[in-house]
Design a protein that fits this description.
The chain is an alpha+beta fold and 88 residues long. It has helices spanning 25-31, 54-67, 79-87, and strands spanning 39-43, 49-53.
Amino acid sequence: MRRVKKTRRRGFTRLSSKRQVTIPLRALEETGLGPGDQLKVEVDRAGRIVLTSAAVGADRSRAIEETAGSLPRVYKPGSLERVRDEWR
């Protein structure tokens, strides 16, 4: 008996027995993602799985690192420590 592959609707995928999915090519082309790209996986409040390129988060982190401490002498020495002590 010959096994017949079920037809799939465009833009849909299935979860395999190993809990793996194949992302449709069209979605990958629209996002510019390719083999080896890292994705961040989150679940939103509606219970949807959201995949985000890890490069987006890395860009934000890099921007924070580049600008952190770039405003010297904005606070007087010791003023931040006093504010932090108020929070404790």
